[in-house]
Amino acid sequence: MTTSATDTVAGASVDLLTTTYQAHYRALLRLAALLLDDLSSCEDVVQEAFIRVHAARRRVREPEKILAYLRQTVVNLSRSTLRRRILGLRLLPKPMPDMASAEEGAYDALERDQLKTALQSLQRRQREVLVLRYYADMTEAQVAELLGISVGAVKAYGSRGLAALRVLMESGNG
Questions:
Q1: What's the average pLDDT block by block, 10 residues per block, for the chain (174 residues)?
Q2: RNA polymerase sigma-70 region domain: from which residue to which, for each copy (predicted)?
């Protein structure tokens, strides 16, 4: 049996995973960055997610959902990373992409840092719901399924999280 024959027998093909990696790596890295506190951990989590999905690719029943599997794996691995170092969790600044101008870039970076700091101060579940809803642009039903909670819980966590985030951002304590 050749390598290509075994890679396409069942599940997601290596080509599909390669294409998904090329198209979505950065977006998954940004998703991890909203849940974790340093770039190297984010890169580790996203790489590990691709490795795990690659290893399980033959068990993927619906290859078109490969990105959803990757997102869920990134969220779960981010949770595990935070759990492992909960006592030593520190906020570290992350390098941001190039900006249009120095003034605009400085203001945007300050605002993003304030938002990330405010997000980190929310309860874990509130942060996860807000990141998945507003950054990953998932529906309430998708978030509920991904996190294993009810749609009502997603609405409650989202509402409380937004209210707390609003207070933190307005007070400048975020």
A1: 44 83 91 87 92 85 85 91 62 52 61 82 91 87 92 94 88 65
A2: 21-85
